[in-house]
Amino acid sequence: MTELTHDGTAKTIDTARGPLHYHETGDGPPLLLLHGSGPGVSAWANYRGNLAVFAEHFRVLALDFPGFGKSYSPDGNPMPAALPAVVDFLDALGLDSLPVLGNSMGGNVAARLAGTLPERVSRLVTIGGIGLPVFNPSPSEGIKLLVQFVEDPTRDRLMAWMESMVHDTAILTEEFVELRWQAASDPAALADVRKLFNAGSLAAMRDRNAGAADAVGLLTKIQAPTLITFGRDDRVTPLDSALLPMRLIPKCELHVFHDCGHWAMIERKDEFESTVLSYLLRDLKKPELL
Length: 290
Hints:
Blueprint: H1 6-9, E1 10-15, E2 18-25, E3 30-34, H2 43-47, H3 51-55, E4 59-63, H4 78-93, E5 98-103, H5 105-116, E6 121-127, H6 141-151, H7 155-164, H8 174-184, H9 187-196, H10 199-206, H11 212-221, E7 226-231, H12 243-248, E8 252-257, H13 264-267, H14 269-280
Parallel strand pairs: 3-4, 3-5, 5-6, 6-7, 7-8
Antiparallel strand pairs: 1-2, 2-4
Helix pairs in contact: 4-5, 5-11, 6-7, 7-8
């Protein structure tokens, strides 16, 4: 396959709420990828290394949420704007039920899509971002460092946050950090991230009772076969967050990557791709080969 590039895979589609930017590559049944949150994040930043492998089996659609990448900027907090944008995106492309994979914020949005519109999700895969921490304090170390960067956006603070996202800091190459720094230091991008992460959001996270009942109730409504993946050393959504979804989602499986932080798709790329593809391709295997 020809090497994939940002511009070579980039597309934009208009919706009633504004333009949505995404990356598309590959043939076959559609697969939706939803990125996480944080400084400089986008669909390309999260998944650029995985697109070619998934594209061997799927028509891969990696969406930029409102307030991230090159999609429109929402009026308020990007989090509540994300799920309506996903529905708008699927409607605009004429897509019905499909597998959805989400990292962090993207996993949260994917879970809400599966719980509230079960007819739109055939299989659900998450990388962190789902459940509630049972033993660890909230907010987590990674979230605190993220807010510190947002309040004082220096390269050193960005590096401190990125180090909290991984187990092995050797993957934070100069090219990788520079890519994030250029995107994260953009004034418009900073303004949108500040709507999501700030002192108020930290205070809300400390109130563990607020929204807990709704979060637990959502898990019980997810009917799609679900694979939840976690890095054993995740310092953003700690591993104990997996306990509730593992028990409450009816058709749920759990895979834990050792020596791995919050970015399993980057830090444990080969194992992640192998695990997820094995799960997603179950639906595509011919009965005579089973």
